UniProtKB/TrEMBL annotation:
Residues 20-88 form the GST N-terminal domain. It comes from Pseudomassariella vexata. The lineage of its organism: Eukaryota, Fungi, Dikarya, Ascomycota, Pezizomycotina. Gene3D superfamilies: 1.20.1050.10, Glutaredoxin. Residues 117-206 form the Glutathione S-transferase UstS-like C-terminal domain. This is Uncharacterized protein.
Length: 240
């Protein structure tokens, strides 16, 4: 291992393997934006806990991706904690973590996740996850939902899910329009842009059909497409 480089732990996809997780995208986009040297170590879902269990407190409730291993041997788990650390260690260009847009976005996304979880929980194992992660996915998500994933999708997916999303997504659209884009702060990129771009990239990876549905539900697809174009210099590196 090159001890001078950060290691970003990420979840692999079916071939061609590249980043898909919205939370991993936040950290990957951040590293690319700041020009920080790193390499990716890919972990299937059942391999996450065994890889990290010795490096975090015994009372850690969940082991998650993204996690980074710093050159000094310290592990940091959770995309926001990673952002806080890297902003302090590499302050330029700034992430504007105090932006009110980030605060608003972080308040919106949990509701959006709940609105559409019947869609993405159903499609992820069918379109992106490798065979090694499928048993883990179905077992843990069925436990979260208190019913099989496919059954939950049949009850809460489709038009019902997208109707819920259409009540939330236009709020993000209006935020992006306030300063005339392409970023939330206008011409200045911030962590809020990485958070939202990661969300859009996740749906883009999930499939053209659902990505088109998501953009339609925003009320103005162009402002979101403009953001993706603006972050392209930092999203192109997705496979290593």
């Amino acid at each position: 291992m090159d001890s001078s480089r950060i290691i970003l732990f990420d979840l692999p996809s079916r071939p061609p393997n590249k980043c898909w997780s919205l939370n991993s995208w936040k950290s990957r986009l951040l590293l690319n934006l700041k020009g920080i040297d790193y390499k990716t170590e890919w972990l299937e879902y059942p391999d996450i806990k065994p890889r990290f269990v010795e490096h975090f407190p015994k009372d850690t409730e969940a082991y998650t991706i993204p996690t980074v291993l710093l050159p000094d041997g310290k592990y940091i788990m959770d995309s926001r904690k990673i952002a806080n650390h890297l902003e302090a260690a590499h302050p330029s260009p700034p992430l504007h973590l105090d932006s009110p847009y980030l605060t608003k976005l972080e308040a919106i996304i949990p509701g959006l996740r709940d609105a559409l979880k019947a869609v993405f929980m159903y499609l992820l194992p069918k379109r992106l996850l490798n065979e090694a992660s499928l048993p883990y996915w179905y077992e843990t998500r069925s436990k979260q939902l208190s019913m099989p994933v496919d059954e939950y999708h049949a009850e809460e997916g489709g038009d019902k899910a997208w109707k819920r999303a259409r009540e939330i997504l236009p709020k993000v659209t209006e935020m992006l329009k306030e300063n005339e884009g392409p970023f939330f702060l206008g011409k200045t990129a911030s962590y809020a842009d990485l958070v939202w771009a990661g969300y859009l990239l996740f749906w883009q990876r999930l499939g053209d059909d659902v990505f088109a549905e998501l953009l339609k539900a925003t009320g103005d697809a162009k402002v979101h497409e403009d953001l993706l174009d603006a972050v392209k210099p930092w999203s192109e590196r997705a496979d290593h």
